[in-house]
Fold each of these.
Amino acid sequence: MFKFLKGVVGGSGTGLKDLPYNIGEPYSIAWGSWVHYRGTSKDDGAPVSIFALTGCNANDGHLAAGRNGVKRLRTVRHPNILSFLYSTEAETFDGSTTKVTIYIVTEPVMPLSEKLKELGLKGNQRYECTLASFPLYDSDA
């Protein structure tokens, strides 16, 4: 009974059950503590990226930094930064521990290594594509 009530009233924000996006498979490469998932909109099926950060304590430093990042991402509008679509924070209780997860939904993106695999680039083509994605700057300029 307690587990049911915790699931109904737990979490902050709307929680995961009301997330207007479907969470798909994760990419094999993680970025720090964040897990990057493929996702789709429940409304129109449009592709999105979903990033999740999980901590065991609501006061965890990683979660505090994640909350700060969400706050900043909501207000930033720049062509070289991902477009922010949605965020929520959810608590889950699995027997003995409570886990807090922050979800951020952005425009669809994929890790560079995944894109290079998809394109099937080899040798110099792969090297040149990587340089184009991460330009080297002259320190004298």
Note: The first strand starts at residue 21 and ends at 26.
Amino acid sequence: MHSSAAVRRWSIGYGVLVAAHLGALLAGADDLADVTQCLLMPVLAGVLWTATRWPRGHTVTWAFGALAASFLGDAVPRLLDGDAAFLAMVGCFLLAQVSYVVAFAPRARRSVVRTRPAWLVVYGAVLVGLVALCAPHAGTLLVPVAVYGGVLTAMAVLATGLGRLGAIGGAVFLLSDALIALARFVPGWDLPGQGVAVMLTYAVGQALLVAAVASDNRARRRARPTTLAVRTPTTTRDNVVAFVAVRRVGV
């Protein structure tokens, strides 16, 4: 059986790993940075596993899929070069975003789509602005980048259905990928500490999404016993009535 102590251990491990990765980036220790980045998502999956209980259900299952695809997005491009590496990264993280969209879709009624539709204008403006900045220099990569941007924005919108943690996590993840796109396609883009900023927002965004998914799982499990408690007496009375009726017929 999982315990809060296990959640703390995995969470501390993730925090230490993130710190080690950022430190490696700042120190120019490329090998250590590669190893620690590839370990981020497996350790975060450990956090999600220990922070949730059976029945984990739809949202948790698809969140694990998103973490697995994110791991591939961190690892696979290191085996390739140039545009092939970039497309591999985009493809893997596209799968991750699709998985998150599927995970969060059942909470759409609690998201800004239904509760604050005016916010859709803000998310749409961010997407249009980002694509517009990248388009002049994206060339043949414009279509995959635009598709990825659309799915990424949809993930951030639907993540608001998991509450504040989900909303912030989705927005921070969107920021991380926006920084990558700007550095790749906008000439002269030179953000100080670009690599550290990308990975910090990536690690924090993913962690917040996992925390939101775990919180949603706890809320659903707390609601389940209440539902059963309400239904059980009715079922029992119905069974007793049926039994008495059979006995009377037998008499």
Note: Residues 141 and 224 are 47 Å apart (CA to CA).
